Amino acid sequence: KIQRPHLREILKRDLDLLRQLAALFERDPELRRWQPLALVEEFEKSIYKEIDFGRELHNIKKFAGIFADDPSVYVPSVYEDLSTERVLTMEFIDGIKVSSDRLREQPWFDPEVVAHNGVRMILVQLFEHGFFHADPHPGNLFILPGNVICPIDYGMMGLLDQERIDELLLFLVALLTQNAERMVRLLERQGIVGEHVDTGALKTDLLDLMDRWLGVDLARIDVAVYIQAIFDVITRHRIMLPPDLLLMGKALATIDGVARDIYPQLDPIEAMRPHVLRIYFRRLAAPEFYLRDTRRALEDSIYLAQRLPRIVHQVLLQLRDGRLLVRNEPSEPTLERILRERNRAANRQAVALLIVGGGAISSYLLIHGQGWLPWLGGLGYVAAAVLGLYFVFGLLRSGGQ
């Protein structure tokens, strides 16, 4: 595999043109929500990774380690001493492309076995190792005697940490079980649902889409179309999906399309379900799956405890200087003023209830809590004290009313 001369210079010119077009699109409010400049930046990172043959060599070796004990997948050997960043030397693969008509003429070829192995291969990559072939289209897949799958072209790979694997696994489970509530919660946990998003409307649109798919025979579901429809609904609500989620969707949709071309009778949901559920329940049985959220909560609590004195100091300074709340309102009609005062009284009652309730809960955690819960109780006392100070100063500034 030899890189064309002056390839980087050509790519730079093309990317500059794309960036200029994206800047024009950014001026249109309707197009701006798709973040054209961010898309070009992400594409630039991806394309430069794909032409770095040193990175691809590393990818091949890592991929080979993942499937070293799997007889249904073969990874080509690579010759490091004959490879550079612009030249990649690999073993010659004497196989048949999965898209070739010659494949069906082979007496050893079993389309059902290859289709199921292909689905299992991508799920193992995604959810067991977090390192996956992101472009498994027909031209990148060879079939060897014995129905062995041999992927080539390892320039575009996806990489996921364990936390992201868990999130994507839950997302796929929600997608396969048509659970819109869980899907929206997962998007919120990933921090990509901004305040501008109407989560109720998003959930309704997802439920409406899934309801239309409920009546479809599972064996006839086109996973590529289904995933794309889900992503279209999400992006229509101005949510920018993370690149790894898009890559996962692309990889699943592509391998599903390839598998169904080979074996049209394939039921994609049924083919995925046992592998996804096996991985899912294994993660549920792992203690670190639950400890991660507890550890994160503890770290957040420690961080808050470290910053809280500074926050309290700033609040007290603003209260002392009268800068905490400044209003300059014209005189209001009598009825509006009465309603505003009643609302203010209701707000103060709510704050008072929070202080009392927070103190009671904090006391319980300090006395009966175990592990990190007494720390949380201490923080609750501090928070109640800050609210109490705010409440007292508010009363003093308003003349006790």
Protein topology:
Layout: H1 7-26, H2 29-32, H3 36-50, H4 53-66, E1 96-97, H5 111-129, E2 131-133, E3 141-144, E4 148-151, E5 157-159, H6 162-176, H7 180-189, H8 199-214, H9 223-236, H10 243-262, H11 268-284, H12 287-320, H13 334-368, H14 373-397
Antiparallel strand pairs: 1-3, 2-5, 3-4
Helix pairs in contact: 1-3, 5-10, 5-11, 6-7, 6-11, 8-9, 9-10, 12-14, 13-14
Notable features of this structure?
two-stranded antiparallel sheet, single chain, 401 residues, three-stranded antiparallel beta sheet, 14 helices
Short description:
The protein is mainly alpha-helical and 401 residues long. 64% of the residues lie in helices and 4% in strands.
